Amino acid sequence: MKIAPLLVVFVMSLAVLSSCEKVVNEKLVARPVKLVVSSFISPSDDTVRVYLSWSSPFYGNRIIPPALSTASVTISDGTTSRNLSWFSRQGIFVIPFNQFPIAVGKTYELKVKTAEGVEASASTTIPALPVSPKFERLQTRTTGPADNRVKTHVFRFSVTDPAGTPDYYRFDVYQRTNESVYDVVFMVGHKMVDDQLRDGTLVEEFMEYDESLGNGAGFRQYMFDGYLLHVTPEYALFHQSLDRNNISEDNPFAEPALVYSNIKGGYGIFAGYSRSRISRTYSN
Q1: Residue 208 burial (CB count, 10 A)
Q2: 268 near 282, Cβ under 8 Å?
Q3: In Å, what is the CA distance from 245 to each residue of 36, 109, 248?
Q4: If 190 and its partner were Cys, which of 50, 120, 156, 172 is the partner (CB 3.0–4.6 Å)?
Q5: What's the whole-model pTM score?
Q6: Higher confidence at residue 88 or residue 58?
Q7: pLDDT tens per residue, range 182-211
Q8: Helices (H), the chain
Q9: For all residues of the chain together, what is the average pLDDT?
Q10: In order of start, what are the domains of the chain with their CATH numbers?
């Protein structure tokens, strides 16, 4: 009987099992708390709004920190600077456009300084309005059994892209209805695109929205608002990274996606856009 080889195997097995029982005491490196800044500005809006908070740790208790109200927030166009006021009802800093208008082609700088002396800043340049914007519902189709029908709305967006510069666009569709107790507005789709391989030509995109009808006939009248946004590169990069992050957040097999930030001295986004709105009404 060959006992020696069996003893060797037994001893090696004990070594492997004992190594599996070792506790690894690795300390996770905690990043320092930083300012979080969020602001999107446009000539189409009536107010500049800035949200502030402190960052939260990635590990451990991930409760969203409350809005930060004790800070100095300043916006400048290179010539004129204005301080924003704290608006407690919404938890943001604001300044109305009649005190500080936003204009196409201008570069704006946002500066924040907390009571503790922490500073953060960012800048953005407002792009021109979309050229020759168009929005329409091309067609509808109804599918499914009689008690569970689905109505698909097909939309088309287009803009004429200026040549020689990288451009980014966002297309949104909202549906409005007054066929209930209250007027209701809700988003039914959005898409972020760029002019890569389409520079200086027609940028055209299609979008579909599936409306669940059940066994009904749908609305008597459909009212859609198409928003065509010409956005800054940082606006596009932020929202694209946010979409990737949202997709990977609940997927244990997805690679984590970092959210883009252009805030110096902190996290977050300060970006601009110009917007055109086209409203369409269709009978059922």
Answers
A1: 13
A2: no
A3: 17, 27, 5
A4: 172
A5: 0.82
A6: 88
A7: 567 889 889 999 999 999 999 999 999 999
A8: 3-20, 233-249
A9: 86
A10: 35-127+241-274 (2.60.40), 131-231 (2.60.40)
